[in-house]
Amino acid sequence: MTTDIRSLVKEGYETGDYAGHFRTNSQPNAMEKKYLDRLGSLLPQAAKILDLGCGIGIPFDKYLVENGFQVTGIDFAANHLQAAKKNVPTATFIEGDFSKIDFGGDHFQAIIAFYSIFHLPREEQPDLFRKMAGLLTDGGLILVTLGTSPGDGVEENWAGSKIMAWSNYDPATYKTILARAGFEIMASEYEGHPGDQEYHWWVLAKKK
Question: Whole domain around residue 112: which residue ranges?
């Protein structure tokens, strides 16, 4: 899929009701909490965490801030950032494309990316993981959700918007991409089941 996927995704998030469809609960669900807690247990107190595609800041950034971490979130939907700043006022939020932004030499102990990486053209995703490795301190961690089947997709009438788009590899390919980017997988698990509307692969990995 061409880079036009970005305009489709941005339109979908800015014109649809993402929050009303997917973020009605301000707290993580059981699986999300399990992985966030495991991530937190591996980090030093007040560690710096970067959230790629932070959305409206809940539940993930809110939960991390409440547990003492310093969170910086980035998203390219202006309406999401406005909501995030209200929902998590003590976090830092940046409007921009997380695959392109320059963080000016800043480094983080962890990077999270939930339901966001698959909105980039899959051909660009290996470079994103290499960028993530470069933004992490030694031994830094990533916690991400990824697609479960290869291909590109466009969905009409998504969450009240006209359109949404995705681009994925399969988990076996992602394993190779992560290894080449310098990551070692510590834990992984499927969220949902084949055929479900929401079917994702969760990965917790450490920078070698």
Answer: 5-207
Task: Kindly give the pairing relationship between strand 136-146 and strand 200-207.
Answer: antiparallel
- Taking residues 192-199, what's their average pLDDT? 77
> Using one digit for the tens of pLDDT, what is the confidence trace for 177-191?
999 999 999 999 998
Our count of domains for the chain comes to 1
CATH number at residue 41: 3.40.50.150
